[in-house]
Amino acid sequence: MYLLIILLPLFSSLTTGFYGRFLGFYGSSLISSLFMLVNFILSLLIFFEIGFNNYIIFIDLFSWIISNNFLIQWNFLFDKITSVMLVIVTFISFVVHIYSIDYMKFDPHFSRFMSFLSIFTFFMLILITAGNLLQLFLGWEGVGLVSYLLINFWFTRLSASKAGCKALILNRIGDLGLIASIIFLLVFLKTLDFNIIFSLTPLLSTFYLTYFSFSIHYLSIISFLLIIGAIGKSAQLGLHTWLPDAMEGPTPVSALLHAATMVTAGVFLIVRFSPLIEFSTNALNFLIVIGSLTAFFAAFTGIFQHDIKKIIAYSTCSQLGYMIFCCGLSCYNISLFHLFNHAFFKALLFLSAGSVIHAIKSEQDIRRMGSLVSFLPLTYIFMLIGSLTLIGFPFFSGFYSKDFILEIANLHRNTNLNFTFGFFACWLGTISTFFTSFYSFRLIYLIFINNNNSNKNTCSNIFESSNLVLFLLLLLTFISVFAGYLFKEFFIGLGVDTWNNLIFYSPQNNYFVEAEFLNLNLKWVPFLFTFFGFLLTTLLNLITTKFLKFINNYSFLFFINKKWYFDYFYNKFIVYPLLNFSYVFTYKNLDRGFIELIGPVGVILVLKKISKKLIYIQSGQLTHYIFLIVFVLVLLNNFLILFYVPIYLFIIFFILIFYI
């Protein structure tokens, strides 16, 4: 059962990929959906056996790499962290597969699309079930590769091709950190197995690497390198620019990418390596800073975006920032809880957005929508509930995890141990709730409530999605509302032994008990900021003209609208200089210059010059030819006698034999 849950998506991908043209639309739909359904049922059984019965399953298949004094096995680790991720990945993947049957039914490459979705799921399952870091890295690189194939699925569009390349390259930058951490662990520990690494970590807590007069904490180096990998994969500030552009892929890809697979891999990596990262205070503080800045930046940028999918993409980036800085606060289980809730309501938002886009002829600019509540009432309800869950409205799923993260940040702010970073996380996270509420309700107003700005032809053909899609959205809505309440005790309940020996908390960073006794006024602060965001959105929506004049008069808002010029900075100071250097130096001087000059081009030029010189020797007179032949033979004879007598004798012997 444990191996089958990993292999089924691979079988599905190979079947629909190689035999899709023979299976057709219905065959590919049936096989891929059936395999994902079986996978989800198996994940529920694993979750029941491991999550509720406190088992840990370790499967050691065979040796992978054997070299001198280290051994890397092909093994799988199924613990509670893995079981939670299995439920998320398989359920969202199953829903996306079913949703794609309706959304992509007119695409001529439907079988290829379903194959890519299945292999995406397969590599994510390899990542979360890995028992060693190298096997995790295999799944890590696999989801990065398939994300390129899915983002670039409509490869005839230049924007999709550029977005796929951008995602691949920026993820490779982050992957360098993960590769470096693998090298460090191999050099010093001679192993990559999680069980051995985590058991040896306390012994290395006082180990330093000395370079000249500098001493660097060994575990801090490993932690920073792992965090760099997580920053690239989970689109944190600095390497986040690929995530909004990844919306060039089909909407089901966006839902799977943001809700369950690729962007959650970075958070999973940090949670998995909590027994190591927890020993580095600097790494924890770095997580707080980068996560808080990402949550604030993405939420602030999202309020000025106009593409419906990019707004939701920036909300993903912001929510991932909450998860990252929550890990920096040593609350890995709360981060995992928010990841669990986020998967469902983010899938709901993306698939609802896909329903809207599908209904209005692939239009994604929210400024060209409006009054859709009368055409798409069910989609409006689903998207409203998803938005309420996203902003952390009381008693929805997001409320139980997101508000608890801010409460923990408040506690860190009130302690002398971590005052600066706790203060930083608390207030940036709280302000981000204001912007989250602002862009969420702005989305609702411009799409469903305001006056319609589309043309007559579009309005005459607006329709609700099929019953299948509506059923999936209803299912996601139900889970988004109740998942937080139902699983709160499992993830963060006091006295629950869910994460014993799986997630390590430093004693001085454990504030779960104190969070229950936090001042009630402080607990109301995030909700008040959320409510103010709703009020401001409503107010500005009523005075739209004045608000637009306000935006036009202040250039700093244009600066925000351009995503803080991160893309401009990268292109101006990194990409273009590298391209110019590559063209002028490596291409023109090396490839087309030195290498070709000493290679084929140089040989051809030399032969041409020699042939031109030999032309002057061809005089046409027999006496000249006889003289030249005799002269060359004399020179050759003297040269061979002096230096190559054996060769000379061999030539004479060969000539004699041939003559005889």
Automatic annotation (TrEMBL):
Pfam assignment, any one: Proton_antipo_M
EC number annotated for this UniProt entry: 7.1.1.2
Superkingdom per UniProt: Eukaryota
Catalytic reactions of this protein: a ubiquinone + NADH + 5 H(+)(in) = a ubiquinol + NAD(+) + 4 H(+)(out)
A GO term for molecular function: NADH dehydrogenase activity
Similarity annotation: Belongs to the complex I subunit 5 family.
The name this protein goes by in its record: NADH-ubiquinone oxidoreductase chain 5
